[in-house]
Write a structure and sequence with these properties.
This protein is mainly α and 225 residues long. It is built from ten helices and no strands. Helix 5 packs parallel to helix 8. The longest helix has 28 residues. This is Transcriptional regulator, TetR family. It holds the Pfam family TetR_N. GO terms for molecular function: DNA-binding transcription factor activity; transcription cis-regulatory region binding.
Length: 225
Amino acid sequence: MEMDGAASRGAGHRRAAGSAPRRRTQAERSAATQQKILDVTTDLILSKGLRDTSTVDVAEAAGVSRGALLHHYPSRQILMQEALRHLLNREIAEITVIAAAIRAGDMDVDGFLTEMWRRFSGPLFMVTIEFLTAARTDPAMRDALVPVATDYNHQLDEIWENLFPDAAHIRGTRRIALNTTLCLLRGMATQSIWRDDPKLFQEMLEFWKTSLGNMLPGPDEGTPR
């Protein structure tokens, strides 16, 4: 009987150790489905454009029924608005990581500009252009864009202040420098649609890095170079 009891306990332990992983809750499954739908939506917008991306396309690519898609996003307009928020919130999260690297001293101005150009010259900005074009004539899309874009810009403002902490006495110049930088990057990215000239864009980026260094003092400099 002793041996039988020990064997029974051992078998119980083995069953516990080999038990199936915890099943996801309904809320977790729903969140995962929404995440997949939004990721697929932005991928399709990148490849097909916003105008030609339909809910049928999204449902098929995401591997969900159209009914399931409409359960989460009752209309195409709502789906596109949420895809925009999803896109920018993801970018904000990644920008926050960059901000932490700057605060820790692991990234300088040159590194920040290189990273920002990498982001602007990648797929994110191309998808954003699709939304910006739609927002020009669609008030609902514009309303969805403004608050998230404002949050994104606030994150960049904080990063910029950490990059140029000794430029507080020229706060206006520092703010203009940030906005000029963003306009330059957007312009370069937009031009890259029809101009395949990476060397030129890199030269422009290096020129701007030098120009910024001459305009604004870095962390160890009291006055501009």
